[in-house]
Amino acid sequence: MQTILSRPEYERQVAATRDARMEWWRDARFGMFIHFGAHTLIGRNEWAMALENWDIKDYEDVARKFRPEPGCTREWARLAAEAGMKYMVLTTRHHEGYSLWDSKANPYNAVAFSGGFDIVKEFVESCHEFGLKVGFYFSLMDWHHPDSWRCAFDPEARGRFQDFLKGMLTELLGGDYGKIDILWYDVSRPMESHEGWGSLQMNQMVRELQPDIIINNRSKLDEDFSTPEERITAMEGKDWEACMTFNHISWGYLDNTQAAPYSYNAHGILRMLHTVCASGGNLLLNIGPRPDGSVPAEAIEPLQTVGRWLEAYGDAAVYGSLTPCKVRSASGVGRFTQRGKTLYFWQWIRSEQLIFGGFETKLKSIRLLPSGTPVAFSQTDRRIIVEPPAAELSDPIVNITVFEMEFEAPPVHNRCSAYPQLHTGEVFLK
Length: 430
Ligand code: GLC
What we know:
Layout (H helix, E strand, L loop, with lengths): L6 H22 L1 E5 L4 H4 L5 H4 L4 H8 L8 H11 L4 E7 L25 H11 L3 E7 L15 H19 L8 E5 L7 H4 L1 H11 L4 E2 L25 E4 L11 H4 L6 H13 L3 E6 L9 H21 L16 E6 L2 E6 L6 E4 L5 E6 L4 E2 L2 E4 L2 E4 L14 E7 L13 H4 L6
Parallel strand pairs: 1-2, 1-7, 2-3, 3-4, 4-5, 6-7
Antiparallel strand pairs: 8-9, 9-15, 10-14, 11-12, 11-15, 13-14
Alpha-D-glucopyranose binds next to loops.
C-alpha cells in the first residue's frame, strides 16, 4: 500500500530535489512539442471531436484509420536536434482519449485498435538517438471514456477513472519506456481540484516510478514548472515554459496550405526565444505532423535556420545559466540577454548608428560573435556609441547579429539622464 504524504510534506520533498532535477531543463531553453493523434486525420484542430460534436462511434471509425509511417518519430527528433532543441514532448494521449502506445489499460490505442505501431516506443528511441530528453504529454480530460465526465458527480466513476489514469501512467512510466524526463499533464476537466483528481496520490506514484522526473502544473498542483500558453509571460520566482503553436491557430495538424501563411519564420522564432532567455523561461514550440507522420513543410526551413543560428550563437547567448536580464530599453533595434557581467546584444534591425543609452557601469569590451572580432566604441555619460562593424561582418544566417559586451561588473542600467521619467514611471500631468 502506498503511503500518501500530506500536501505540505509532499511539496517540501519535491522542492528539496528540484534544483538537481531541473538543472538540465533550465539549461536547455528550447524544446519541441508534438501534437499527434486521431485528430490529425481530420486536420481541423485537435479539438475537432468536441468542437464539431462528433459521435464517439463515428470518431472511432476515423481513429481506426490512423496509420502513420513507422520511422516518422525519427524525422521529428532529427529536426528538433537540428533546430538546437534539447527535448521533446509528445501527446501520448490527447483529449480524444486515444493512446499512441500499445496500452493494456486503454485498448483504444494506435496498436490494438488501429493495427499500427507503438508510436511512443519509437518516439523514446528516436529522442535517445538524437540526444534529446523525453517528455510525455498526458491529457486528464477524456472525451472517449464513459466515466470521465461522470467523475464530477459520481464517486464510483471517479474511482474507476482515477484507476484508469494510474494504469496508463504506470505503463508509460513504470518500465518498458525507461527513463522519462518530463510529465506534461493537460486539462483537468471536469474536476476543479487536486482532491478531485487524486493528484497527490497520482503524482507520488509517478515520482516513485521516475524519481528524477519533472512535472508541470496542470494536475491542479503547482509541481515543478508553470505553463503559460500562447503567450510569453515571465513568472517571477518560478520555473516556467511558454508553449506556442507554430501558426497561432492549432496544435494539431491543419492542412498545410492553410496553416502556412500564419506560420513563424526563423526570425519570429528567435524573437520568442530571446524573450524566454531574457526573462528566465523555456520555449516549447509545437508542430502538428501530417497524418503519415511527416513534418509539415512550413516548419522545416525555419527550424533548420534557427538551428544554424543557435550553432553560432547559442552557447554564448542562449543555453545554460543566464541571468534574468533587467536591461530592457537601451536600444530600439535589438534586445539583450545576460550572463553575469556580460550582455549579449541581439541586433535584429541593422542601422548605421548603434547607440545604447542609460548604462552606468563601465564597459570593458565589445566583441562580435561568433568570431570574437573586437568592435570599437566610446562611452560617455550614460551613452555607449558603437562603431558598427562592416556589413559583411553581420550575421549571414538570419541577420540577427550578436555583440558580446563585457562590463566591469554586472551592468547597472538606469535612467537616461535627459529623460528621467522614462524609467521611474513619473508623470508630470495626469
Ligand atoms: C490546451 C488545449 C490543447 C493543447 C494544450 C497545449 O489546453 O486544450 O489542445 O494540447 O493546450 O498547451
